[in-house]
């Protein structure tokens, strides 16, 4: 049996019983291997489970009790009550991933709003409101993306219903109108990354730099955050507006898919540029130790190490806007867990000095962003590690 067949069978054995009926894995032993199996499939360039998941979801070929069809979302929501939260999330992400890879393979648009809605529903069931909001926005954009095939989606599917707990219907319709207008610049049927239209909403004049990489291209249907990071690292420009915007968008998308964080928008005044305003509220999936409230996210796309003066300027900006925390994402590398500042000791002293003023400054680099798009907790592990390093020092 080839690699594709083996991976397909490794996944199906979790859910298909000896007679073809639905069975659900437990929470011990071999049943706990569903996450690594899903990750291996996510890393594969081909949509090897697309046909299987489509048959289950649309043709009802997988049956549960009383001969009722079992959809992919049913599998995920059944895993969560037995403790397999990451397994449930991996299965839902796999559903979204396989449609994206099939789009890349065929160059044809598919209804990705449906699996995005499944992720939003699962996030709601996991009691992570901002995570639910992020994927409900993706689902709402997916409605607009597919309304040329299904006109009933013009008024919205279940995604906008989930969004009613966060914003008014009038605000939603205005946002959907902007998404609809933006999508009109592409031919109908052209596969697009839905995340591009969420991220572009955070910017105004700079949104064009997001749209220019929105088409699904290449053999490998990568998550859009990875597409943006590739564009940043492959750019020959030095400190260009396009590179900076794309790096900010990648950072924002990854933070928006981290439980507890909501990304608002980029703001600017006459004499400064604020990258992204964010809000943090702990939930069942996230309790980093940060104080709840607003913060700023700033991304540095330069290849040069971030200097202490830049860190100090960012901290001063955060104090001026009276936020509780700031997250600086630098393109430069990391050495021994610390961003490679020109003066690393001074950089840590600056961060500790701002702590006296009640401001927490966290720092990540581009390596922390890679591979986190499909993880349940997004950037949480890296943010938690940097917070504890800052507050308590290095691990002995």
Overview of this structure, please?
- The model is unreliable at 334-340 (pLDDT under 50).
- Helix 1 packs antiparallel against helix 2, helix 2 packs parallel to helix 5 and helix 12 runs antiparallel to helix 13.
- Strand 7 and strand 8 (338-339) form a beta hairpin.
- Helix content is 49%, strand content 10%.
- The protein is an alpha/beta fold and 396 residues long.
- The chain has helices spanning 3-12, 34-43, 50-59, 72-79, 85-106, 113-125, 129-146, 158-163, 169-183, 194-200, 208-211, 224-234, 241-256, 308-320, 344-356, 366-369, 380-392, and strands at residues 261-263, 267-269, 272-274, 276-280, 293-300, 325-330, 334-335, 338-339, 360-365.
- The chain has 17 helices and nine strands.
- The strands form three sheets. It has a five-stranded mixed sheet, sandwiched between helices. It has a two-stranded antiparallel sheet with strand order 2-3.
- It folds into two domains: 3-234, no CATH class; 251-392, 3-Layer(aba) Sandwich (Trna Endonuclease, Chain: A, domain 1).
């Amino acid at each position: 049996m080839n690699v594709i067949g083996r991976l397909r069978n490794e996944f199906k054995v979790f859910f298909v019983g000896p007679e073809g009926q639905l069975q659900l894995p437990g929470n011990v032993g071999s049943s706990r291997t569903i996450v690594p199996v899903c990750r291996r499939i996510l890393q594969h360039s081909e949509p090897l489970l697309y046909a299987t998941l489509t048959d289950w979801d649309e043709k009802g070929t997988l049956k549960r009790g009383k001969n009722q069809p079992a959809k992919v979302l049913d599998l995920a929501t059944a895993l969560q009550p037995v403790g397999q939260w990451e397994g449930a999330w991996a299965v839902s992400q796999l559903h979204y991933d396989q449609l994206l890879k099939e789009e890349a393979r065929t160059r044809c648009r598919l209804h990705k709003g449906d699996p995005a809605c499944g992720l939003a529903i699962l996030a709601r069931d996991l009691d992570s409101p901002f995570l639910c909001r992020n994927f409900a926005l993706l689902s709402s954009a997916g409605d607009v993306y597919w309304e040329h095939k299904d006109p009933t989606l013009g008024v919205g599917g279940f995604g906008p219903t989930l969004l009613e707990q966060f914003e008014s219907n009038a605000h939603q319709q205005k946002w959907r109108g902007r998404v609809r207008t933006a999508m009109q610049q592409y031919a109908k049927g052209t596969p697009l990354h839905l995340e591009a239209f969420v991220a572009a909403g955070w910017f105004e004049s700079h949104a064009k730099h997001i749209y220019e990489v929105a088409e699904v291209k290449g053999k490998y249907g990568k998550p859009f955050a990875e597409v943006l990071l590739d564009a940043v690292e492959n750019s020959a420009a030095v400190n260009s507006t396009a590179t900076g915007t794309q790096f900010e968008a990648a950072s924002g998308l990854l933070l928006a898919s981290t439980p507890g964080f909501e990304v608002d928008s980029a703001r600017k005044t006459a004499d400064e540029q604020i990258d992204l305003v964010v809000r943090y509220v702990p939930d069942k999936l996230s309790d980093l130790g940060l104080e709840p409230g607003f913060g700023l996210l700033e991304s540095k796309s330069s290849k040069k190490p971030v200097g202490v003066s830049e860190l100090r300027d960012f901290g001063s900006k955060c104090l001026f806007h009276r936020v509780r925390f700031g997250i600086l994402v630098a393109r430069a590398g990391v050495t021994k867990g610390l961003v490679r500042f020109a003066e690393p000791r001074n950089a840590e002293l600056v961060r500790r000095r701002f702590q006296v003023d009640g401001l927490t400054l966290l720092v990540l680099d581009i390596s922390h962003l890679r591979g986190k798009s499909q993880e349940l907790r997004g950037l949480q592990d890296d943010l938690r590690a940097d917070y504890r390093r800052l507050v308590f020092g290095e691990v002995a």
